[in-house]
Amino acid sequence: MGDFDAFLLDHAAAEKKASGMALSMVSHYPDRAQLVMAMTELAVEEMVHFREVVKLIQARGLVLGADEKDPYINAVRGLIRQGSDVYLLDRLLIAGVIEARGAERFGLVAAALPEGELQAFYRSITRSECRHFELFLDLAGSYFASDLIASRWQTLLDAESEIMRGMPIRAALH
User: Fold this and answer.
1) CB of 174 closer than 8 Å to CB of 70
2) Whether residue 9 sits in one domain with residue 54
3) Of 6, 33, 76, 86, which one has the fewest beta carbons inside 10 Å?
4) What is the residue range of 16's domain?
5) 0.85 exceeded by pTM
């Protein structure tokens, strides 16, 4: 919260990248109708969030910067295994982990903000991220057995926890 302007800029970049990730899933899995519809809707929602954050950025007299690689995202995406089915499973579960962590962070930001429109916005974003987290787990459940999901989910959560311990604290979503 000590550098909220930097956080806003990072938040905008994260929303834009999340929309792109959803569209990438559509491109990679056009034959999976449920996934295509869910990711299409998610891409639109993430772009709406991006637009709203851009409005906040411009109201503060800030300017969007060039996209930068997010060290957290790169590290957790490194956990995705290769191979057709395991790649899809890991991609869905990693997206769920990222959304869950985002919900956690947005909730902390909302709690730290003074009452008002900005706090209400971040409370709303928190709820959205929770829905997104659940969406990815539900999609995994549509394509994979629950015992496989549970086992891999726990493995990924353990690995993500280790990654988080190694990350510096910064004014960023992740």
Assistant:
1) yes
2) yes
3) 33
4) 1-63
5) yes
